[in-house]
Every structure is written in structure tokens, then in C-alpha cells.
Amino acid sequence: MNKGYLAIVLHGHLPFVRHPEHEDFLEEDWLYEAITETYIPLICVFEKLVEENIDFRITMTLSPTLISMLTDPLLQGRYLKHINRLIELAHKEIERTSWQHSFQKLAIMYLNEFCKARDIFEKYHRNLVLAFKNFQDLGKLEIITCGATHGYFPLMDVCRESVRAQVKVAVSHYESVFGRKPKGIWLPECGYLPGHDEILKEAGIRYFFSDSHGILHGTPRPKYGVFAPVYCKGTGVACFGRDLESSKQVWSSIEGYPGDYNYREFYRDIGFDLEFDYIKPYIHPDGVRINTGIKYFRITGTGNNKEPYVPEWARNKAADQAGNFMFNRQKQVEYLNDFMHKKPLIVSPYDAELFGHWWYEGPMWLDFLFRKIAFDQKEIRLITPSEYLEENPRNQVITPSLSSWGWKGYSEMWLQGSNDWIYRHLHTASERMTELAKSFPNVNGLLKRALNQALRELLLAQSSDWGFIMGTGTHTSYAVRRTKDHILRFTRLYEEIKANSIDAEWLSDIESKDNLFPNIDYKVHQ
Amino acid sequence: MAVIRKVKEKIKKVSARKKASKRVAKAKINKNSAPTEQKKEILGFREMVVEQAKFSHPEISRSRRGLAQDLPNKYDQDKLILQVRDPWWIHAYWEVRSATIEKLKNELRDEFYKAKRIIRVYDVSHIIFNGHNAHSSFDIEVHEYNNSWYIDTGGPGRSWCVDLGLLLPGGKFIMILRSNTVTTPLAGPSWITDEEWMIPEDMFARLYGLGFGLGQSSPVGRAWQEKVKHVLSSGVSSVSSPVKKAARKFWMRVDCELIVYGATEPDAKVTVQGKPISLRSDGTFTLRFALPDGKQIIPVKAVSADKVDERTITPIVVRETK
């Protein structure tokens, strides 16, 4: 009999970036990099486990914007072009490094990885969402939803209609893709404000996650801390709290696994390192150096000197650390079980893009972890939140506290000097959207299209990613541009709708650019 | 949780890795941005670094996309909005219509110009605020040109409402705008320990049907029993080196590459160091190698299509780095 449960949760999200008007668009690479380095490696791990009949459970967010991009034919075609170029570059690298065995080995490794990525991509008919759906249908993976465009809910509270629209658009989009309703949601940035559970309940969502302090600082005091979910008072929507101990092991700058010296160095990429004329065809056409994904060095140490990456060493380290993670969880559940007289649940959520993109060895680590849990121990059992609730329906009722998993744990990442100016525009647009939804309860044709597009533009402006990027203070111009573009498009639509003079040609143009959520219904913004 | 920390890998600071990376690719990290400069571990800091890595691209000129149209400064509305930043701080932003100001000027005449513009912050915890029943309040003087303010309430777990108004020389307060009410979260555990428990209706109904057989419906539970027990793999600890202070930022890298190129009959077969290579349609070829220290002997051999003629030319290159 197991003594406790472990729920691994990966939050997969990227903002909607799709620019048909440009042949090469730098920011679209965010998606292509994540496909090659995170989504496909994770799919490979899951496939292998299923193939070898090794049982596992994992919960993953696929945000509605991410799903929209993964299923978009234009971006799918562009990814194929992208991966083909990488394959070409890898071939050149194998030749170029003929006299440097340690690098050539790596160039061959990358060639294999890129070819594998292309194979997987083609195997699922360019639609990776099908792969994830497959694992969900097999009962191994629970896919949860997110805010439609990852709007940060606590700073949308003055217009709850927008929170509602974020949730409802996400839920109906999920249904159209997976053929059933989502059981759970990842609140964007883990941002919870008391009362938003009412909106989740309306949408039929049974659970969400909060950061540790969201539960620990809830009222009344939670009897089992974060080691059992709670029900929100008044709605009964379940809230699962993040476990700090296991989070720290992976995330922490002091104890975190990804910083191991044997692991691949993220910041040394041949896109920056190699001679300009040679690398030029593989970086931005304007000559701006970018990451290619081919990285030859290991972290090595704290200094500038970097040594070549040795895959076997990194692999051994990932296996060690998976063992270490499991051992710590075993000790943790044993201790908690004695203390609680009940099976504790450890919830360990991470950014999906941490695995593979930032932490190259992450998917491998996850693979080792699942295998070790299946074969090497009996204290912990992997579980999804909905399975846990089925087996443990009796839980404490509290009101969790306002919280997020962002910098400092509350809203400061999205509300500081560099980004606080956006809220007067976002809130005004929200109010206007509510006004439109009320004024036009039943319309058709061009007017309906304009109203639906207005909601799309509003949602796109609300992505927390823009505020986040402004908050970090680096390469902010794109984030500022996107916020303004969508607000401007929304405002023009609002004015044209009110004046009953919709520019059909322009509407078609922005419909073809911001083409996500084809079945959106503006009436959800109420 | 300290008990659990007995076996723990000591892994070097990722922050050090980040510092090193700043030197390598400084375009990516702006040292002026407050969050990335945090030295100590702050809640959510790693999440931020990882999330930032998703967007790792240098700035490029966007002029080709046309000039940015700007957003309006004002929406012609009277509005004062409060939002919570954290347990202690709230943020207010506002807009006052010029018509509203004109009206006040007409009403107050001289007094308008002598008045101070203030925001009055009310503690309205657990009450229905009517403008007069706040537990306490404090004022912050603002300027005409301000349209937002960060307010240090010093009060986690309390509710707040704010008025923007004029404080007349006689002490009379004229409200211009009133905000929404917000509640700051607790900064620690609640003092309330009364417990309430529940089982959702639908789940209870199912349980009732099963005769309270908790967990029997789980196929996972059964599958688990079949798992083979293995010896625990122990947590291996690696030796960590002490984190050194970041060195200065200046850096340099030098590498050498060698380009070998030539030409022959387009239909000839060419090998370089014994490996066949492909020719361009005009019979030329170019090869590029990273050149390590040491001696490279590079025989280039061409054989005519009819295998009658053969030429071999062998460049020898020595690289020595000092």
C-alpha cells in the first residue's frame, strides 16, 4: 500500500504569436524552439513509457493559445521549414567539426534529434495536440485548460466579465479539441483571487492550483497544509496547493537540479558563437544572431570557461537526480503520513518549457523518475488531481488567499512601474466589451463577426506574457507593440460597431491574422 | 520539513550560471531590470527566469513595421480603480474628466486653487462603507499631473477604499472620485482554526452507491499492487564547489576555421581525407572545418569520370595557439 501521492504538473503555454504578414518572424521561434526542445521530447518520453507498459500519471496544461498555434496550418508549415533548416545546419556542423571529435559527436546527436523531431511531427500529421490527446485517452495524462489567452486574473477582477470570458472561451475551445470538458484549470501564473472560483464553477471546472501560500494563508487555517486539497467556501471547487520542498529541488537557484555542471549550457549557442557568414543563413534574415538550438557546452562551472558537453555524464546525472528526487518524496510522504494519519498528496508543478528548453535534460529526468517510481519503491503513487478527488472526496472547506507563483508571490510582476500603464486601457476595453455584449444580444452577419473579433482582440491584449516581458525589462518592444496593437484593433472595432460602419475589408484582414478561437461567442463576455 | 532535508544534493548556484551567461550573451539580460538583479532567492524568482528564457531573443529594429500608433491618454471618463499588488501595497489609477474639474473650479472658485489634491485611503474591513464609517483613514498628497499611485497600506488582510479629492485650506474634504473596494491577502497563516469539511453531492451519491467502498473504484490502486519491489536507489550526493564571486564582465573568445576549396571537372569524383564530397555543378567545392590546435594533413584527391586521370593535392596546416 502506498503511503502518499505525487502529482507532477507541467504548465505548457506560449502566447499567440502568428504573423502571416511576415515571411520570417523572430518571435514565432518561441514556438518552434519549444516544439523541438520540449513538446516533442516529452511526447517521446510518454510514447516510450506506454510502449514498454510502464504505468505513469502526469497532468499538463495545454493553454488555448498554445493549442491554437500547434493546430494552425501556417505555423505547422513554418515549423517544418524551420526543422528542415536545422537539419541542414546539423549536416554542415558534422562536416565542420570533423577534426573535433567531442563536438562532432554532439553535432551527430543534434542531427538525430532534429530528424526524430521531424518524424514525430509528421507522424501526428503535424498536429502535436493529437499526440497529447492520445495519452489523455490512454488515461496516463490529464490535460487541463488555462485562461483563453493566459490573462492574469487578479488584475482583471474589476471587470469579472473578462475573467468569465477567459474561462468560458477556454472551456469551449478545449471541448472542441478534446471532445470533453476540462476537469481542471491552471489559473494563468497560478493567480488566484477569492471569488474567481465562482466563475470556474459556472464553467463546470472542478479544480485549480494555487501556490503554497494561497492555501497556507487561507481562512480558516488548512488542517493539512498543502498536502491535501481544499474546497473553496461557497463553491466547492477544489484547490491544490504547490509543495515548496519538491518545487525548490527543481527550481531553486541554490539546490535546483538544472544548474548541475554536467548539464548543457543554455546560453552558449552556435547562433552566437560561430563566424558570421557561415551562420548567417540560420539566424534572422536581418543578420540578428539568435539561438539555433545547437549548443555544444556543458555548464562546467561558474566562470567563463566552458567545456564540451558529454551526453553520458549528463544522463548519469539525470538518473542520479531522479533517484534523489524520488528518495526525498518517499521520506516526505513517510514523515507526513505519520503526522497527518492520512495519505499526503505532493503537488509539484513546473513550467513545461523548463523541461528540455531551459533544462535540456529535463525530459530525461522525468523519464527516469517515472521508471524509478514504477519499479524501485512502493511509498508513493503518481496520481492526477481528478483521480485524487475520486478517491478522497472529503476535504476541508476554506477560502484560499490571493496569490500567484510569480516573482514575490503576488501581483507585482504584472503591476510595477514598467507595465502598470496597461491596465487603464485593458479595463476600459473590458468595460466596452461588456457594453457591446449587452447592446447586441442577438445579431448576425458582419456585425456578429465584428463583435467576435472584438473579443478576440481584447483577449489577446490581456495575455499576461506582455506584462511579464515588460516587467523583465528586456526586449520589451514586441510586448508593448502587441498590447497596443490589440487595444487599437479593439477600439477601432468598438467605434465602428457603435457607428454602424464596419470596414469589412479591414475586418477580414485582422480576422485572418488573429485567427484563433474560430467558434468564439462574444456573448460570453457578460 | 527540515527532517526531510537529510539527504540532499548540493548543487551549485544556478544564479552563478546566469551571471556567467550575462557575460556571454549580455544582449539577453538587462542588468537594469530590477527582478533579475535579485541576489537572494525570492519567491517565484526561478519561475521568472525560466519563463523569461522562453522569450530569449535580442531586440531588433522594428521600423519596417511602420510607426506605432499610440493609445489615447484619456478615455473621457471619471474613474478611480484600486488593485492589490501584495499583502501591503495597493495600486490606484485614475482619470478625471476635464468637465468634472471645470465644474469644481466653478463651484469652489478661489478655494479650488488653494486646495491640495489628495487621495484618502480608508480601512473598510468587514463593513459596508458609506463614506463615514471607516475604521481609519490616511491621506497622500498628489499632484494634478499624477494619474496613479502605489499605496503602502501596511495592513495585510484588510479591505481598502480610496477617494480622490480636494482638501480645502479649512480642512474640508471634497470627494471627486471613489474607488472600488479591494482586500489585501494575509501575510501569514490565518488565526481562524474552525474546520469545515465537505463531500460534494455528486461524489457522495456515487460513494453511497458503492457502499462507502472508498478507493475500490480505482484501477490505479489495483495496478499498483502488482508492481515489483526494488531496492531503493540511493540519493547520490555530488560534491559542490563553493560559489565564487562573479568575475568582471569583460571577455573574449577566439576560434579558427579552415576553408578548403578547389575545382575540377564537374563529373570527377573527389575525396577529402578519404571521405567523398559532392561538387557544385561547375566542378567547384568548398569545405569548412573548425581548426583545432595541431597538424592537419588534408589530402584532396580527384579521379576523372572514366577513372583514367587522378590528381592528389595535400595541404598541411598547423595551428598553434599561444
Count of helical stretches of chain B: 6
Q: Biggest interface, and residues per chain?
A: A-B, 137 and 131 residues
Distance between the termini of chain B: 53 Å
Strand content of chain A: 5-15%
Largest sheet of chain A: 10 strands, mixed
Return Rg of chain B in Å.
36 Å
Structural class of chain B: alpha+beta
Shape descriptor of chain A reads globular
Helix content of chain B: 10-25%
Order of helices and strands of chain A, N to C? EHEHHHHEHEHEHEEHHHHEHEHEHHHHH
Structural class of chain A: alpha/beta
Low-confidence stretches of chain A: none
Which oligomerization state do the chains in this entry correspond to?
A: heterodimer
Question: What is the β-strand count of chain B?
Answer: 17
Describe this structure in words.
The complex is a heterodimer of chains A (526) and B (322). Chain A contains 19 helices and 10 strands. The radius of gyration of chain A is 23 Å and the shape is globular. Helices cover 50% and strands 9% of the residues of chain A. In chain A, strand 4 (184-186), helix 7 (196-202) and strand 5 (207-210) form a beta-alpha-beta unit. Helices cover 16% and strands 27% of the residues of chain B. Chain B contains 6 helices and 17 strands. Chains A and B meet through helix 1, helix 3, helix 9, helix 12 and helix 13 of A and helix 1, helix 2, strand 1, strand 2 and strand 9 of B. Strand 10 of chain A pairs antiparallel with strand 9 of chain B.
Describe, in short, the structure shown.
The complex is a heterodimer of chains A (526) and B (322). Chain A has 526 residues and is an alpha/beta fold. In chain A, 50% of the residues lie in helices and 9% in strands.
Question: Which helices and strands appear, and what pairs or packs with what?
Answer:
The complex is a heterodimer of chains A (526) and B (322).
Chain A: E1 4-12, H1 29-51, E2 58-62, H2 64-70, H3 73-96, H4 101-123, H5 128-137, E3 141-146, H6 160-178, E4 184-186, H7 196-202, E5 207-210, H8 212-216, E6 230-232, E7 238-241, H9 244-251, H10 270-273, H11 276-279, H12 311-340, E8 345-351, H13 362-375, E9 380-382, H14 385-391, E10 395-398, H15 422-439, H16 445-461, H17 464-472, H18 477-498, H19 504-513
Parallel strand pairs in A: 1-2, 1-8, 1-9, 2-3, 3-4, 4-5, 5-7, 6-10
Antiparallel strand pairs in A: 6-7
Chain B: H1 14-24, H2 45-54, E1 79-84, E2 89-95, H3 98-108, H4 110-114, E3 116-123, E4 136-141, E5 148-152, E6 159-167, E7 173-178, E8 182-183, E9 197-198, H5 201-209, H6 219-225, E10 257-263, E11 269-272, E12 275-277, E13 284-290, E14 294-297, E15 300-303, E16 310-313, E17 316-319
Antiparallel strand pairs in B: 1-2, 2-5, 3-4, 3-6, 6-7, 6-8, 10-13, 11-12, 11-15, 14-17, 15-16
